[in-house]
Amino acid sequence: MKRRVQTLLALVLTALWGAGIYAGHANGHLRFLDRLEATLTDWRTQVRGVQAPPDLVTIVAIDDTVVKRGGTYPLPRADLARVVDTIVQFKPKVVAIDLLLIDRSAAIGDATLAHTLATGPMVLAAAAIFPSASETVAPASAGPLAALPQAERFLLPLPMFADHADVGIVNVATGQSGSPLSVPMLFRTDDKVELSFPLRVASRALDKPLTIAPDHLMLGDLTVPTDSDFALPITYYGPRRTIRTVSAQSIFDGTLDRNAIENRIVVIGAAVAGGGDFFPTPFDSLMPGVEVISTAITHLVAGDSIVRDRKVHIVDALIAILLPMLLVGLLAWRRSALGVIVAAAVMVAWAGLNLFAFTHGIWLDAATTLAAVVPPVAVLVGVQLWAGGRRTQYLAAKSRSLAQFQAPAVQEWLARDPNFLAKPVRQDAAIVFIDLSDFTALSQQIDPDELQDILQAFHALIDRAAVDCGGMITSFLGDGAMILFGLPSAMPDDAARALKCAIDLHRGVERWMASLPPVIGDRLGFKIGAHFGPIVASRLGESHQHITANGDTVNLASRLMEVAAQNDARLALTEALLDAADFHGAPDGVLSGPLLTQIRGRSGVVTVWFWRDQNRPSQAAAKVEMID
């Protein structure tokens, strides 16, 4: 229940974040996203590749060749008149002059140009002057036109030229990367609204009525979607000169091809190096502004512009809210590698869908979606990593605690097989018992804290010996312990390791008792019994389980401690253990026996041997004795 509430809270906060990011960007804030979107748009355009534009527009470029011929720039009005007159004679649909004719020049040249403009369908360029470098200023009034770029004033062509032509505003809107991503279709001042230059040209070329709606234009029956601010999104067909371009020098040379002009839209513009009217595009670091304008004109006439209208913005908003919620939900649902893989697959699918839509004419926002997705996903992953680290530390602490109660081999076996010993197992094993003598009487006479220290030291000694020999302490019995050799699986050297453990315990406990204060060490003794034979290993208990062994072998090993004490020995070993360990004595120890004895509570006779250190004072002779 707690996890469900946490997941629900994470989803709600993620939805609010996505909605806030989209609303903030849509209202003109978070401008850094514009730069990111411009970069991603350039990348998507490059992935889409070069496309052949509809062959509708011819650019007549006033380029470096023309300037070298005439020696001056701007082009003299008389020369411009000659260019226009030649083009008109080849009967174009419309002649669009992307040059600002706002200043007077030689009277004869101006008069000649004015006369020439009256001979054919003409559109002249004007410019909007804005109060700052940005064309997006706060709207001064409500209504559909409030989102239009508001200019301080318009720089219109001289009346002597404007009287013979239509006029359109030639400004373009550049993104944060400097690349024009859209062309406004309408501009306004406090008291006037003007059409853009590309819209004037397209309307004149098609010769159809123009209808302007909030999210689209109608040129007769042709619908052209626009953005929410009446801007036409543009995508580039390719690098410069992808749209058919001829040099104006061909007019002066008399080599202009009639087929490049007749029944086409002709745009006259500057392409002079250093002229200033150049923009970076995805395919070109410097594209003449006249080709940017011609791209917009082609979109309008052909109806092939990329769609970024109100419906697309609604989809953008939904994606900005739902995609991060989906990813957070997946990561919260599957806190594992699977959840990460599925979330990554969803992001790859979104990227693929976004690119597919762009290459097929729909401009879905990428930057806003990334801004909505990355922070909440990063926060969730960070929280999960932190919580995972805390859980790892918790489990490590639990594992360390468990290690204090289970032998390392058993821990590993249980990790591999949680059902280990769920059913009893019969096998051969070696058992070692050790117990302190006279400890109960001593415990009544010394301080409890001191008693605790003695027990801790004794248990630590047993633990080291058992671990070193690969045994498992099944239980500490107060002042004694039982050590089992044969789990988690029986091994050929179980008996040998049990014998070594018993001898190590004998020596270790002797040294330990010698290190105790005489008042304590002299009063303590110990006894060890070790045997090898069949046992039944199992897990006992319900809520709290422990691993244990039982059977005659266990009982006999325990009784051997009595046999050792009764025979003034400290380590009693059965012949079965010695045979299984293939033990033939050691140069540093003394093995005495055998003693044929009967064990209390058990029928039959057991052969017992006693072991001591070679340098230990001789023990009393072993006594053969019947034990009740």
Task: Please provide a written account of the structure.
By secondary structure, the protein is an alpha+beta fold. Strands 18, 19, 20, 21, 22, 23, 24 and 25 form an eight-stranded mixed sheet that branches. Strands 1, 2, 3, 4, 5, 14 and 15 form a seven-stranded mixed sheet that branches. Strands 6-7-13 form a three-stranded antiparallel sheet, covered by helices on one side. The chain is built from 19 helices and 25 strands. Mean pLDDT is 85; it is low at 133-142 and 618-628. It is rod-shaped and about 140 Å long.
> Biggest sheet, in brief?
8 strands, mixed
Overall pLDDT confidence: 85
Helical segment tally?
19
The parts where pLDDT drops under 50 for at least 5 residues are 133-142, 618-628
Main attributes of the structure:
seven-stranded mixed sheet, 628 residues, eight-stranded mixed sheet, 44% helix
List strands and helices in order, with pairings:
Blueprint: H1 2-26, H2 32-48, E1 57-63, H3 64-70, H4 77-89, E2 94-100, H5 107-117, E3 122-129, E4 153-155, H6 159-162, E5 166-169, E6 173-174, E7 180-184, E8 186-188, E9 193-195, H7 197-206, E10 210-213, E11 216-219, E12 222-225, E13 231-233, E14 245-247, H8 249-253, E15 265-271, E16 278-279, E17 287-288, H9 289-302, H10 310-333, H11 337-359, H12 367-403, H13 408-416, E18 425-437, H14 439-443, H15 448-469, E19 472-476, E20 480-485, H16 494-515, H17 518-521, E21 525-540, E22 546-550, H18 552-566, E23 571-574, H19 575-581, E24 589-598, E25 605-613
Parallel strand pairs: 1-14, 1-15, 2-3, 2-15, 3-5, 21-23
Antiparallel strand pairs: 3-4, 6-7, 7-13, 8-9, 10-11, 11-12, 16-17, 18-20, 18-21, 19-20, 21-22, 23-25, 24-25
